[in-house]
Amino acid sequence: MHNIILTGSNGFIGKAFAKRIGSDNLYQVEQSHAFDFLNQYDKWDTVDYILHQGAISSTTETDVNKIHKYNVEFSIALFEKAIEHSIPVKYASSASVYGKIHSDFGYLKKTINPLNFYALSKATVDYWVLDNMDRFEQVQGFRYFNVYGEGEEHKGDQASPISKFTKQARETKIIKIFEDSEYAFRDFVCVDDVVDVVLDNTAGSGIYDVGTGNPISFLEIAELIAKKEGAEIEVIPFPKHLEGKYQEYTCADTSWYQHDYSSVSEYIGMS
Asked: Does residue 14 register a pLDDT over 60?
Protein backbone atom coordinates (compact mmCIF):
# COMPACT_ATOMS: atom_id res chain seq x y z
CA MET A 1 0.00 0.00 0.00
CA HIS A 2 1.41 3.39 -1.01
CA ASN A 3 0.19 5.76 1.70
CA ILE A 4 2.54 8.68 1.00
CA ILE A 5 2.71 10.57 -2.30
CA LEU A 6 6.22 11.90 -2.99
CA THR A 7 6.84 14.25 -5.89
CA GLY A 8 10.38 14.90 -7.09
CA SER A 9 11.59 11.51 -5.90
CA ASN A 10 14.47 11.48 -8.43
CA GLY A 11 15.80 14.83 -7.24
CA PHE A 12 18.52 15.41 -4.68
CA ILE A 13 16.20 16.13 -1.76
CA GLY A 14 13.46 13.78 -2.96
CA LYS A 15 15.88 10.86 -2.97
CA ALA A 16 16.82 11.62 0.62
CA PHE A 17 13.15 11.46 1.63
CA ALA A 18 12.64 8.22 -0.31
CA LYS A 19 15.67 6.67 1.40
CA ARG A 20 14.37 7.62 4.84
CA ILE A 21 10.74 6.53 4.25
CA GLY A 22 11.32 3.42 2.13
CA SER A 23 9.88 2.73 -1.31
CA ASP A 24 7.18 0.35 -0.03
CA ASN A 25 5.32 3.28 1.52
CA LEU A 26 5.66 5.69 -1.40
CA TYR A 27 3.84 6.52 -4.59
CA GLN A 28 6.55 8.38 -6.47
CA VAL A 29 5.67 11.10 -8.98
CA GLU A 30 8.16 12.53 -11.45
CA GLN A 31 7.92 15.76 -13.43
CA SER A 32 7.45 14.08 -16.81
CA HIS A 33 4.27 12.36 -15.56
CA ALA A 34 3.07 15.00 -13.12
CA PHE A 35 -0.12 16.10 -14.84
CA ASP A 36 -0.96 12.57 -16.01
CA PHE A 37 -0.74 11.53 -12.37
CA LEU A 38 -3.29 14.16 -11.34
CA ASN A 39 -5.71 12.98 -14.01
CA GLN A 40 -5.27 9.24 -13.54
CA TYR A 41 -4.56 8.55 -9.87
CA ASP A 42 -7.66 7.16 -8.15
CA LYS A 43 -6.53 6.13 -4.66
CA TRP A 44 -6.62 9.53 -2.96
CA ASP A 45 -8.68 8.20 -0.05
CA THR A 46 -5.83 5.84 0.94
CA VAL A 47 -3.17 8.58 1.14
CA ASP A 48 -1.86 9.56 4.58
CA TYR A 49 -0.08 12.69 3.38
CA ILE A 50 1.53 14.35 0.38
CA LEU A 51 5.24 15.17 0.40
CA HIS A 52 5.62 17.66 -2.47
CA GLN A 53 9.31 18.08 -3.32
CA GLY A 54 9.17 18.32 -7.10
CA ALA A 55 10.02 21.58 -8.92
CA ILE A 56 12.08 23.21 -11.62
CA SER A 57 14.78 24.13 -9.12
CA SER A 58 17.42 25.90 -11.19
CA THR A 59 17.77 29.51 -10.05
CA THR A 60 19.12 30.42 -13.48
CA GLU A 61 16.24 28.90 -15.50
CA THR A 62 14.76 31.56 -17.79
CA ASP A 63 11.82 29.64 -19.33
CA VAL A 64 9.07 31.38 -17.39
CA ASN A 65 6.26 29.26 -18.83
CA LYS A 66 8.03 26.02 -17.86
CA ILE A 67 8.65 27.26 -14.32
CA HIS A 68 5.07 28.45 -13.92
CA LYS A 69 3.61 25.21 -15.30
CA TYR A 70 5.44 22.87 -12.94
CA ASN A 71 6.19 25.03 -9.91
CA VAL A 72 2.90 26.93 -9.69
CA GLU A 73 0.14 25.30 -11.76
CA PHE A 74 0.99 21.72 -10.79
CA SER A 75 1.49 22.61 -7.13
CA ILE A 76 -1.87 24.33 -6.85
CA ALA A 77 -3.64 21.52 -8.72
CA LEU A 78 -2.04 18.97 -6.38
CA PHE A 79 -3.04 21.01 -3.35
CA GLU A 80 -6.63 21.22 -4.59
CA LYS A 81 -6.66 17.41 -4.65
CA ALA A 82 -5.31 17.38 -1.11
CA ILE A 83 -8.05 19.78 0.01
CA GLU A 84 -10.76 17.78 -1.76
CA HIS A 85 -9.69 14.53 -0.06
CA SER A 86 -8.60 16.02 3.31
CA ILE A 87 -4.97 14.96 2.88
CA PRO A 88 -2.24 16.74 4.91
CA VAL A 89 0.55 18.32 2.84
CA LYS A 90 4.24 18.96 3.48
CA TYR A 91 5.80 20.91 0.63
CA ALA A 92 9.13 22.43 -0.34
CA SER A 93 9.35 26.18 -0.53
CA SER A 94 12.67 28.02 -0.58
CA ALA A 95 14.61 30.67 1.29
CA SER A 96 15.21 32.23 -2.12
CA VAL A 97 11.84 33.97 -1.67
CA TYR A 98 13.54 36.36 0.76
CA GLY A 99 15.98 37.71 -1.79
CA LYS A 100 18.45 40.04 -0.14
CA ILE A 101 18.16 40.16 3.63
CA HIS A 102 19.15 43.51 5.08
CA SER A 103 20.28 44.25 8.62
CA ASP A 104 19.02 47.42 10.28
CA PHE A 105 20.31 48.22 13.77
CA GLY A 106 21.10 44.56 14.40
CA TYR A 107 17.69 43.24 13.39
CA LEU A 108 17.39 41.03 10.35
CA LYS A 109 14.53 42.18 8.16
CA LYS A 110 13.13 39.35 6.08
CA THR A 111 10.80 40.41 3.33
CA ILE A 112 9.54 38.54 0.28
CA ASN A 113 11.77 39.85 -2.51
CA PRO A 114 12.45 37.17 -5.16
CA LEU A 115 15.53 37.75 -7.30
CA ASN A 116 14.80 35.16 -10.03
CA PHE A 117 11.91 33.30 -11.66
CA TYR A 118 12.39 30.22 -9.48
CA ALA A 119 12.11 32.26 -6.30
CA LEU A 120 9.08 34.09 -7.68
CA SER A 121 7.34 30.77 -8.38
CA LYS A 122 7.96 29.61 -4.81
CA ALA A 123 6.68 32.89 -3.39
CA THR A 124 3.56 32.64 -5.56
CA VAL A 125 2.73 29.20 -4.17
CA ASP A 126 3.41 30.34 -0.60
CA TYR A 127 1.00 33.25 -1.02
CA TRP A 128 -1.64 30.88 -2.44
CA VAL A 129 -1.20 28.53 0.52
CA LEU A 130 -1.50 31.38 3.03
CA ASP A 131 -4.69 32.55 1.31
CA ASN A 132 -6.16 29.02 1.38
CA MET A 133 -4.69 27.64 4.59
CA ASP A 134 -8.05 27.20 6.33
CA ARG A 135 -9.19 24.88 3.51
CA PHE A 136 -6.45 22.30 4.20
CA GLU A 137 -6.61 19.43 6.66
CA GLN A 138 -3.05 20.52 7.45
CA VAL A 139 -0.38 22.17 5.34
CA GLN A 140 3.26 22.88 6.10
CA GLY A 141 5.55 24.75 3.74
CA PHE A 142 9.29 24.59 4.35
CA ARG A 143 11.60 27.30 3.13
CA TYR A 144 14.77 25.32 2.64
CA PHE A 145 17.95 27.31 3.00
CA ASN A 146 21.15 26.15 1.23
CA VAL A 147 20.86 22.38 1.26
CA TYR A 148 23.95 20.21 0.82
CA GLY A 149 24.87 16.59 1.31
CA GLU A 150 25.32 13.18 -0.24
CA GLY A 151 23.72 12.80 -3.66
CA GLU A 152 23.96 16.36 -5.01
CA GLU A 153 26.95 15.78 -7.26
CA HIS A 154 24.80 15.55 -10.42
CA LYS A 155 23.46 19.09 -9.96
CA GLY A 156 26.43 20.74 -11.67
CA ASP A 157 26.31 24.53 -11.30
CA GLN A 158 23.31 24.20 -8.97
CA ALA A 159 25.23 22.04 -6.48
CA SER A 160 26.27 23.57 -3.18
CA PRO A 161 29.69 25.22 -2.81
CA ILE A 162 30.57 22.35 -0.48
CA SER A 163 30.13 19.86 -3.31
CA LYS A 164 31.68 22.07 -6.01
CA PHE A 165 34.69 23.10 -3.93
CA THR A 166 35.37 19.50 -2.92
CA LYS A 167 35.23 18.38 -6.55
CA GLN A 168 37.59 21.17 -7.65
CA ALA A 169 40.03 20.44 -4.84
CA ARG A 170 40.21 16.75 -5.64
CA GLU A 171 40.44 17.14 -9.41
CA THR A 172 42.67 20.21 -9.79
CA LYS A 173 43.93 21.08 -6.29
CA ILE A 174 42.58 24.60 -6.91
CA ILE A 175 39.34 25.97 -5.45
CA LYS A 176 37.92 28.93 -7.36
CA ILE A 177 35.88 31.42 -5.37
CA PHE A 178 34.28 34.72 -6.35
CA GLU A 179 35.82 37.96 -5.17
CA ASP A 180 34.36 39.23 -1.86
CA SER A 181 33.42 35.68 -0.82
CA GLU A 182 34.40 36.57 2.73
CA TYR A 183 31.30 38.77 2.79
CA ALA A 184 28.89 36.20 1.32
CA PHE A 185 27.29 34.26 4.17
CA ARG A 186 24.76 31.48 3.67
CA ASP A 187 22.86 29.21 6.03
CA PHE A 188 23.94 25.76 4.82
CA VAL A 189 21.81 22.86 6.04
CA CYS A 190 22.52 19.16 5.55
CA VAL A 191 19.88 17.25 3.57
CA ASP A 192 19.63 14.65 6.35
CA ASP A 193 18.63 17.40 8.79
CA VAL A 194 16.05 18.69 6.29
CA VAL A 195 14.44 15.25 6.12
CA ASP A 196 14.41 14.93 9.92
CA VAL A 197 12.85 18.35 10.48
CA VAL A 198 10.17 17.97 7.80
CA LEU A 199 9.11 14.48 8.84
CA ASP A 200 9.50 14.70 12.62
CA ASN A 201 8.25 18.17 13.56
CA THR A 202 5.01 18.47 15.53
CA ALA A 203 4.09 22.02 14.49
CA GLY A 204 0.72 22.92 13.03
CA SER A 205 -0.06 24.44 9.67
CA GLY A 206 2.28 27.22 8.57
CA ILE A 207 5.30 28.12 6.47
CA TYR A 208 8.61 27.58 8.22
CA ASP A 209 12.33 28.17 7.69
CA VAL A 210 14.57 25.10 7.56
CA GLY A 211 18.19 25.98 8.23
CA THR A 212 20.69 25.92 11.07
CA GLY A 213 20.50 29.60 12.00
CA ASN A 214 24.31 29.72 11.77
CA PRO A 215 25.51 31.19 8.46
CA ILE A 216 29.03 30.53 7.22
CA SER A 217 30.95 32.42 4.53
CA PHE A 218 31.91 30.92 1.18
CA LEU A 219 35.53 31.77 1.99
CA GLU A 220 35.46 29.80 5.24
CA ILE A 221 34.03 26.77 3.42
CA ALA A 222 36.75 27.03 0.78
CA GLU A 223 39.44 27.29 3.48
CA LEU A 224 38.11 24.22 5.33
CA ILE A 225 38.06 22.12 2.16
CA ALA A 226 41.42 23.45 0.94
CA LYS A 227 43.01 22.47 4.25
CA LYS A 228 41.53 18.99 4.20
CA GLU A 229 42.31 18.28 0.53
CA GLY A 230 45.66 20.06 0.33
CA ALA A 231 44.38 22.54 -2.25
CA GLU A 232 44.92 26.23 -2.97
CA ILE A 233 42.32 28.99 -3.32
CA GLU A 234 42.06 31.19 -6.41
CA VAL A 235 39.90 34.32 -6.40
CA ILE A 236 38.01 35.00 -9.65
CA PRO A 237 35.80 37.94 -10.78
CA PHE A 238 32.12 37.87 -9.88
CA PRO A 239 30.04 36.82 -12.94
CA LYS A 240 28.12 39.62 -14.64
CA HIS A 241 25.03 37.44 -15.19
CA LEU A 242 24.63 36.95 -11.42
CA GLU A 243 24.84 40.61 -10.46
CA GLY A 244 21.68 41.66 -8.63
CA LYS A 245 20.48 38.05 -8.47
CA TYR A 246 22.69 36.81 -5.69
CA GLN A 247 21.74 36.39 -2.04
CA GLU A 248 24.64 37.74 -0.02
CA TYR A 249 23.29 36.67 3.37
CA THR A 250 20.80 34.03 4.48
CA CYS A 251 19.89 32.93 7.99
CA ALA A 252 16.97 30.73 9.03
CA ASP A 253 14.59 31.40 11.91
CA THR A 254 14.91 28.20 13.94
CA SER A 255 12.71 29.27 16.85
CA TRP A 256 9.71 27.22 15.67
CA TYR A 257 11.39 23.81 16.12
CA GLN A 258 14.48 22.70 18.01
CA HIS A 259 16.82 20.30 16.21
CA ASP A 260 20.46 19.32 16.65
CA TYR A 261 21.80 20.36 13.25
CA SER A 262 25.11 19.10 11.91
CA SER A 263 27.64 21.73 10.84
CA VAL A 264 29.50 22.17 7.58
CA SER A 265 32.82 21.55 9.33
CA GLU A 266 31.48 18.28 10.77
CA TYR A 267 30.28 17.18 7.34
CA ILE A 268 33.63 18.01 5.74
CA GLY A 269 35.41 16.23 8.58
CA MET A 270 37.26 19.25 9.94
CA SER A 271 35.87 19.41 13.47
From this structure: yes
